[in-house]
Amino acid sequence: VDKLDAIVGESKVSSVTTDNAPNMEKAWGILESTRGLLCNGCAAHVLNLLLQDVAKMDEIKRVAAGAEAITAYFMGRQQLLAWRRSTRSKKKTKKAQEAEAQRKKKQELKAAVFQNVDNLVRDEDFWMKGEQVIQLLEPIIKKLQLLESDHCYISMAYWAFRDLLKQPIYCDPTFLVSTAKAILVQIEARWNKVHTDAMCIAFFLDPAQDPNGFVGKDRKNSKKQIRKMAKRLGYTPEEVDQAYHEAGVFWNLMRDWTPKQRRIESRSAPLEWWGDERDSYPVLSRIARRVFTMPTSSAASERNWSAHKFVYSDRRVNLGLDKINMLISMYWDRLEKPLPRVIFNPAILQTAVTSEGDDDEEENRIHYEAHDSDGEENYEHEVLA
């Protein structure tokens, strides 16, 4: 934190978003008690872990295995056809004869694979189960997409998990009942781990949220946590009491809103709303504006950090030779061309990575010349720096 303060200025860092490892949670406590920072886990990471838990369930595993077999078969057909064409010749050489023998063995294996895929394709129960599995995963995937975005407030993380906990497809399932109920158990387990004070306070202070949308005793606890947060942020005893009082006034105001008025108030982002209402809530608005700067995922935090051109370590922006070659191989494979031998000048790489454009918004790109095995054809390829 001291190094970051030296880069961006003292007291400019207001929150920390990390993954959800146990050692990180202990680090949060130290930072919150000694630096007055707001700490939170990556909500998107929790949903990724939830998907991993769900993928281990028997019904999901069976459908996924069948889908992988079908996908692998169809994705590999072009390579098989290209391999067969490469062994054709008017006059068979010794090398071609060996290739022919390998082809026959491969054809036998291919026939067995085809039979398995053919059975899956013709199995109506497989496709029905596949559609049901997609329906079970869809709510989680949509929430993951939301929480990984840059314009998502931390209050939405609370809403997302609360919405998953109340999904009829898990609470009152009509198909794959045991699997759906098992998913609900996993959602509850992950919710207990991602459920933080900062997230509850954000939901409490978000004018777009339903006041009755809290889970359990979170509403009462959130108001108490506002007092604790004010103390942790170094506010005076008078300011702490005032923040608690303003929280009660704001809460009662929200409860009096009609649905139409709530829709009108929700047109403004929480940060904008609290900026406009700073005169009505002079202390609480300071806490709210700090809370709503917290991203919902570590990916969004890193993108925000990079957008302001802050680099903690120069080595993190340098791509090594192995990774460069891997990227070129992947991009070249998409063009469905034979992979060329890649030649590049490391000096060009260093220049491209370290160069910065003042007014030019175009992305830096690295150009490489690639030659085929005979050195006859030249290709020019671009890789993002």
TrEMBL record:
<keyword id="KW-0539">Nucleus</keyword>
<keyword id="KW-0862">Zinc</keyword>
<dbReference type="Pfam" id="PF05699">
    <property type="entry name" value="Dimer_Tnp_hAT"/>
</dbReference>
<dbReference type="GO" id="GO:0046983">
    <property type="term" value="F:protein dimerization activity"/>
</dbReference>
<dbReference type="InterPro" id="IPR012337">
    <property type="entry name" value="RNaseH-like_sf"/>
</dbReference>
<feature type="region of interest" description="Disordered">
    <location>
        <begin position="354"/>
        <end position="385"/>
    </location>
</feature>
<feature type="compositionally biased region" description="Basic and acidic residues">
    <location>
        <begin position="364"/>
        <end position="385"/>
    </location>
</feature>
<feature type="domain" description="HAT C-terminal dimerisation">
    <location>
        <begin position="266"/>
        <end position="330"/>
    </location>
</feature>
<dbReference type="GO" id="GO:0005634">
    <property type="term" value="C:nucleus"/>
</dbReference>
<dbReference type="GO" id="GO:0008270">
    <property type="term" value="F:zinc ion binding"/>
</dbReference>
<dbReference type="InterPro" id="IPR052035">
    <property type="entry name" value="ZnF_BED_domain_contain"/>
</dbReference>
<keyword id="KW-0863">Zinc-finger</keyword>
<dbReference type="InterPro" id="IPR008906">
    <property type="entry name" value="HATC_C_dom"/>
</dbReference>
<keyword id="KW-0479">Metal-binding</keyword>
<protein>
    <recommendedName>
        <fullName>HAT C-terminal dimerisation domain-containing protein</fullName>
    </recommendedName>
</protein>
